[in-house]
Amino acid sequence: MTVPRGYVPAASAARENRRAEKGALQYDVYCGRRLFLQGENKKMSISSEKMIERKEIMDGNILHVTVDTVRINGTDRTSTREVVWHKGACAIMPVTEDGKIILVRQYRYAAGTVMLEIPAGKIDRDGESPDCCAARELEEEAGVTGELISLGYSYTSPGFCNEKIYFYLARNLKKGMQHLDEDEFMNIEYYTPQEVEAMIDADEIIDAKTIACFQKARKYLPGL
Q: Which positions fall inside the Nudix hydrolase domain (predicted)?
């Protein structure tokens, strides 16, 4: 039997772990190799990165794409960051008087499939507040107006994009006027919170903003 270089038997690794509990380094075993794990007193310093050069790639109607060279953690080291810049968006979970959630079903070209989602849309112009965007998108897509309750926000893909999406619950709904964009086609559907939860668990709802907003809105939803 060939013993891999750096191999540590499980029993020996356990003893080393116990001995190392008071030290700066601990050992672990993965695939028969010795790994060094930094202790609590060896945490890496995390700080912001400074952009020192930017290359413009695309300036579109929705997205702005750049390739940035950044200086890492105040050192002399640099790295490249490919970034998608986005003005932000709002997503709204409308709840009817009888406790049904309004969802819209539409085709998503980038995903290549039809998705069931809550009404949502991007902040269209500079200076538009998230509240105004949410009210506008709620009526445009769901054809209703209502009282908006802020549920906070999240970043959708912070590894490469700065898009921040603001979540809302809408209640005390009143009939408005649905007016979709020329290239938008969607159906309005109604589901109980229990049905929505079951569809999330079954991967029938696979839209991230809908799943996140549902979790944030749970305390307002009947029967959950």
A: 85-215
